[in-house]
Design goal:
This protein is mainly β. The chain contains no helices and 11 strands.
């Protein structure tokens, strides 16, 4: 049997909660998440995906035709043991009073040491974890066909 020096829950964990309609700190992850994906279990609301590289209030829109929106009333911060939700007054997709939710959370980790060898696009921000094999990379495109950003396989000089 192979031995690993970590537990999968060191890098991924989920939380269930019932919305309060008020500022709501969700704790118990065991780490500060770098990516949080929230889905209502009560209704067919849009998915909410937010990451620490982009900033807690910037939401990636995965199932509608808008790449990113700034939502200051949904996930408001990534905290040492979870994240904080705002009042969610606009749409009720993460914290509507009485509704139930699930949040899937990933830890990336470090923001230094990425290897951009062979890249033609320089990352503007990133967070990666060599051990878990998870990374978030932000870059500005250069409008050139075939341009490449640093790939997750080159995020560190450490061997797996």
């Amino acid at each position: 049997m192979a031995y690993i020096s970590f537990q999968p829950s060191d890098f991924f964990n989920s939380l269930l909660w019932t919305g309060t309609g008020a500022t709501n700190a969700r704790t118990g992850l065991g780490f500060q998440p770098d990516l949080t994906w929230i889905k209502s279990r009560s209704y067919a609301f849009d998915h909410v995906v937010q990451d620490a590289v982009r900033g807690a209030t910037y939401q990636l829109n995965t199932n509608i035709n808008a790449g990113q929106t700034n939502r200051t009333d949904e996930v408001t911060s990534f905290d040492a043991d979870g994240f904080t939700l705002g009042s969610d007054g606009t749409e009720g997709v993460v914290n509507k009073s009485g509704d139930t939710y699930i949040g899937w959370n990933w830890k990336a980790g470090t923001t230094t040491g990425i290897d951009t060898t062979g890249s033609t696009i320089t990352p503007t921000a990133y967070s990666f974890n060599q051990t878990s094999g998870f990374s978030i990379v932000q870059y500005n495109g250069n409008d050139t066909a075939g341009a490449q950003a640093a790939s997750p396989a080159r995020v560190s000089s450490m061997e797996r």
